[in-house]
Amino acid sequence: MTPRVADCTPLRCRDYHAAIGMDVLMVTDRWDETGGGRERYMAELRTSLVRRGCSVGVLAGRARRLRRGVEHFRRSHPSSRVLSARPAAGATHYQLHSGVYAAAYAAEGDSYDSTLRRLFFLPALRLNVRRRRLLQLEARMLDARSDTRVMAFSARSRDDLQRLFGISADRVVLARPGVDLTLFRPPSAAEAAADRSSRRDRIRLLFAGHNFALKGLRWALEATALARRRGIDAEMVVAGRGPTRAFAALARRLKIDAHVRFAGAVAQPVLAELYRQSDLLVHPAFYDPFPRVIVEAMACGVPVVTTAACGGAELITAGRNGVVVTDPREIDAIAGAIASVAAPDRRAAMSVEAAETGRGFDFEAHVDAVAAWLACA
Questions:
Q1: DSSP-H helix ranges across the chain
Q2: Which of 79, 80, 195, 215 sits 20 to 30 Å CA-CA off 342?
Q3: Model confidence pLDDT, tens digit, residues 37-69
Q4: In whole angstroms, what is the distance from residue 115 CA to residue 263 CA?
Q5: Sign of the CA dihedral 41, 367, 66, 168?
Q6: Reported pTM
Q7: CATH classification for the domain delimited by 189-358, as one of 3.40.50.720, 3.40.50.2000, 3.40.50.12370, 3.30.160.70
């Protein structure tokens, strides 16, 4: 069967009625097939659904445009599904990429270094019109009386939904995202041998993420510095898009700037190589519903240290494929996780366990669950 493919660029107003036979309209604030996180996931999901014969359109833009577009689309296609990656009026299906916004915003306030900024964060949030509207729209979509179907990416997000909004269990599907296991794989025997000959006793750490403050980069650097003071030859690569000046300055103050490299946003094949060259993914997030970087790292045989506030912590068996700390600021515990991979035998055992966990998260298996949820293809 030849898929009926809608134009991959976001739809324009005149396209809503012309999109005959469209099965699913994807709704998001930003469409960028080369982006990270949510943008990349949505592009990959659309490609996979189209391969399965599902006609998928894309609508991207600000809240007002999304509302008008969804209204037009639902009038023209009453039996089609509207899959939203953010709160959007009229969506039939909603994926919680950002988790619960109320919880995410609270964690953002907690992540600030400045006591004054933390103190004034909630009053400022009440004055932020855009965020206030998002919270209101989220509350309407997740209200117990709403019929919007919901997909959570972690048990933590699912439990937050039930605790904060009283959503019945039958409205929520739990489907943890997977990754491309042909790209994210452990190193070959030859790659591993070359790595061993070049590394000496150095421990290679990786931080991967775009929101440096919320994902805990400061505390990853602090823990790296502490590990080095304890005699561990640790170095870190920081991969991700965002301003680095303050974090580079922190690395200088901690006297580890010679051991930290800011790689910026990198393409997926480059990121996969960075994983294979690393001994530990350091992800001390204040809040993260389910970052695919944790599955990517494990699929490459890299154990993970993260926090209880991260949905990916649900995949970790302490001391076997990673370590979970209670709070991002627990640099002693994070430094202890770094020390846990210092011994070659221990590092090898944790790598095997991580790879075994990662192999259970194939992206196409995740798309099977999404397609069944959407009743598409």
A1: 38-51, 63-76, 101-111, 115-127, 129-141, 155-165, 189-199, 217-229, 245-253, 268-276, 292-299, 331-340, 344-358, 363-374
A2: 215
A3: 888 999 999 999 999 988 898 888 887 788 888
A4: 30
A5: negative
A6: 0.90
A7: 3.40.50.2000
